[in-house]
Protein: 4Fe-4S binding protein
Organism: Chromobacterium rhizoryzae
Amino acid sequence: MKSARPPLPHSADVAARAGGSCRQPTAQGFMAAVGLWLRDHAGLLRALQWGVVVVYAALLIVPACLDLPEDSARIWNNLTIFAQFVFWGIWWPFVLLSMVLFGRLWCGVLCPEGALSEWAAKKGLGRPIPRWMRWGGWPFVAFALTTIYGQLVSVYQYPKAALLVLGGSTVAAVIVGFIYTRGKRAWCRHLCPVNGVFGLLSKLAPMYYRVDEAAWKASQQGKTIPIQAVDCAPLQPLRHMQGGSGCHMCGRCSGHRDAIELSLRSPTEEVVKVAAKEADGWQTALIVYGLLGVAMGAFHWTMSPWFVAMKQAAAEWLVDHDILWPLDTEAPWWLLTHYPQHNDVFSWLDGAALISYVLATALALGSGLLLCLAAGVRIAGPWRTQRLHHLAQSLIPLAGCGVFLGLSALTVTLLKAEGVPMFWANDARLTLLAGANLWSLWLGRAILARWSSGPRQALALMPLLAALALVDAAWGFMFWWW
Ligand code: SF4
């Protein structure tokens, strides 16, 4: 039987077309060819995904079945420490970095959870996505809850906790896939705890799938053969897709109607231009209260003398008032950290203090940032809430850099324990922070330039500088001053 699909362009044609009349290969031609290559090697990508699923399952399940390592255990002689290093020291920080470099290529090509969810959806009930799942607040709520819960059970330190948090998320992804949609990724699009973060970071990527609406329209004229629909797993509105934040970069739509191709772009384009037409308060919440609030509190509390003082004062007050049950340490490991053999147990007070500290940090930092952004918007011109959401996007580089720095702190600690010289780590952190500050400032200036110019624009930049200083001070405490 003949396929209804019309011939699609091949990489050589695309490279030649992008090269113009002189037919020289160009960077754009190369990108388009990469997109087509991804489309044409779906089987290879699927095999790669299953390979990652196997490695992921092994690193997650095997350490949870072993005894906890002795203090003398090292990365190279203990599977548990090795898995801890791979997951939290390499996997997560570099997945975040990959979002900024390649968009959500990780999601579409390597993520084991997405692959399993899509596979389950192909076998499952195929129900439509319910309304509750479409709620826009999930990316923020799921991120905040997972981050706080992960701290309560010490997800970075203990394999059973990692299995519970990461494995639990994977099981949920499979169940959601099995129940909802026919072969799509409803979990990834709506419920994945890092979907919102990945969506924000991928806005900075220098590549995306560009849709040529005119070519799309032209492809509809005079066509009698139906064009085969694209199997876009995260359910993107292909024809009207403007940015890359929801796209998993799988390449399946490359060349579709001769109107979609992987393209290069300026790393400012999506934040400055595309976000100008959006007004998503949940994205703002995720940036200021999530990435720069909850995540900051979660990285801070183990180093913070304020946390210790707060907990000490609360404990003294409880003892003075003869209320002793909050000091009890018998909570199960899946609720609060409980590893007596390693002298690591949380009391109810520890858990309550941790949650309070993280939430207080989020509230103080997030509200401070929001005030600075609001001042910038107001100085630049008449107040519009949409403008506040737009300006908040300028903080994405600093927010992303912060999560990378926080996660890589564990990488540094583990490598130090191995005897690897890490004297350069603080200088590298300072360099990264400086770069992220400049990037945020660059974006902020470009956004403000849409509403103001001259001295007014320069004045409107001042509150943005204050917002950057606030975040820098928080990292200053964590890495230099405490
Ligand atoms: S829009 Fe959909 S099909 Fe196209 S690359 Fe992105 S995820 Fe894949």
About this structure: The pocket of iron/sulfur cluster is lined by residues 108, 209, 230, 232, 234, 236, 238, 241, 247-253 (CB under 6 Å). Confidence is low (pLDDT under 50) at residues 1-9, 11-23. The first helix runs from residue 11 to 18.
